[in-house]
Here is the input.
Amino acid sequence: MLVAFAAAVFSLAHMVRKVRQETEEPSGLHLTPQRIITAGEGTLRHVRWRDVAHATVAVHRLLGPHLVLLGADERKLAAVSVRYLGSDPMVTAALVRYFRDHPEERELLADRERAIAQFHRHLERLEGE
Here is the structure.
């Protein structure tokens, strides 16, 4: 009985640590109305929308494919490995480009579901053309 209790306490402590770690150390790509946040592999970057000239996918020889945000001078502003994206990197790059090109729509990024729904409507319009 004591072993089961100790195992339960250990499991709970591990879960709390994991949740805290994920909260403190975000990973992936986060689009907000004000900026783009990339995180992963020990890096955290905040990039202003106005600084992003292009979003693309590049393959690093050792690290594999990454979503890359480039400035107007083609300088890399941020990159995040596809391991941290959770979706197709080409679609993710298109999503970033959509909201870069439509600043009036960025407030939708405060509500993830509405932002994705708007992006889907945009893709449907493109397919209809």
